[in-house]
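can u pls check wat happens w/ acetamide
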Amino acid sequence: MLLIKLLNTQLFAMKKLFFVFLSFISVTTFCQTKVVIVPQPVSMEMHTGNFNFSTSTIIIASKSDMHEATMLNVYLKKLYGFTLPVKGTASATSKETSIVFYLLTSGKKDEYNLDVKSNKIMISSASNEGLFYGMQTLLQLLPETKESLSNGFLIPELSIKDYPRFAYRGMHLDVGRHFFDVDFVKKYIDYMAYLKYNTFHWHLTEDQGWRIQIKRYPRLTSVGAYRNGTIIGHYPGTGNDSIHYGGFYTQDQIKEIVKYAKDRFITIIPEIEMPGHASAAIAAYPQLSCFPNQSTEIKNTTPWAGSRVGKQVQQTWGVFPDVFCPSEYTFKFIENVLDEVMQLFPSKYIHIGGDECPKTYWKKSAFCQKLIKEKNLKDENGLQSYFIQRIEKYVNNKGRRIIGWDEILEGGLAPNATVMSWRGEQGGIDAAEQHHNVIMTPGKYVYFDHAQTKNSDSVTIGGYLPLDTVYNYHPVPKELNDSLAHYVLGAQANVWTEYMSNPQKVEYMIFPRMSALSEVLWSPKDSRNLDEFKHELPDMYKRYQLWGANYYKGD
Ligand code: ACM
């Protein structure tokens, strides 16, 4: 540990030295005056000299790493507007400067080496994702602002060896409260790729909108994807905007996004919420409720647009009592929905929600009370557990695993479930103690819908989560000893969008906290340094601008 710390101190000093060194060079070529790589690599050694990245630089790749070479050009085009010629290993000539991708025959899957020498940049790894991560690091050695390549870019000679700390590095996006189009979802995936995240948790169904086309149930989107209005301002709202609002992803669009993510080594975990947060599905198919003929309960004081009669897609925020009824009709419906979802998403995990499911309707329902007796369940929590376990069995039989929010611990955990601990760390601790895998998403540390500043200049859901708190977060709770710590696969930031109605607001809420969390998830624990990270924020801001992203600029 001490060694890593020492190395890190040296690294910081070296970066500064390098800055001083370059200040004396006068060239027309673009000079990268400072090396700022986020998340910070495991080890980096600076050398003297530079590689001249120029119009005569070529990329060398073989068939097995052509994908990463192609992706480098995709990003060069996106960020700077040019591409480089790609040549096979045999055709490389010594007079050209080159960027070489090289797949090693052995080594750790996610680990990569990036070596910058005067005439060659070599990215090597035993896996294609390792090469991709090396390529992302290389991008951060290129200019922070959009420059033309005509004069070349000078890249410092250096050697990096790097690999992630956690296997699960997640970002979540709620597209139910507000809908985000395909272009923005792709942009979000690119933000993840730049910062070496590998899992996108796509929250696709909510009380306020069902966002995924399910061919067998067309009303889920023709009815469930739209609401007649949205409350204005902070809950409970000062009125209703009466704007017909909604949208959904067609299955073709979903396939396109899954492929886009896969090309960036990002797995998408879809979330289909159950048994709660089901208002939109119930509005489309009222039989999913235990009380199909009863109108959605809407408080007299709730600002509302259009009819209050019948089952309604919600126009306000919160938790609602009309949830999926645990009937055979509902189970068949969910199984059919999941069949289509699993066809679209190849991920090992399917998120089935499980949070915030009030039991009031189940308590009132003669059907539910009979079922509790019949199945010999303790109470309504037992019924929720029965619900989740039945779905888990279905998903497991298809060769997949479920993830659920930490409420799935109540009434007994499904045998193979992974738990997302959000109400704090206790759910994660309990699940790990029961030898279940855990993803940490505690509100206090990684809820990016909370304000970043006490002087918040926009409406947020509440809470205060400054950058420092995110940066200082340790995903493995101290209560877990070494024999249990490995159940913590990683962590994830959640982005609930009640108060984020457009991409710019999402970006404002995630940056720079998403960069901070990337270091928590990737960089060695003891090499992280908040002061250094903050010192580098102006460079990160420039990078966000290069990415075309909005961000919170500090007080
Ligand atoms: C949650 O924030 N309701 C998981």
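The two ends are 34 Å apart (CA to CA).
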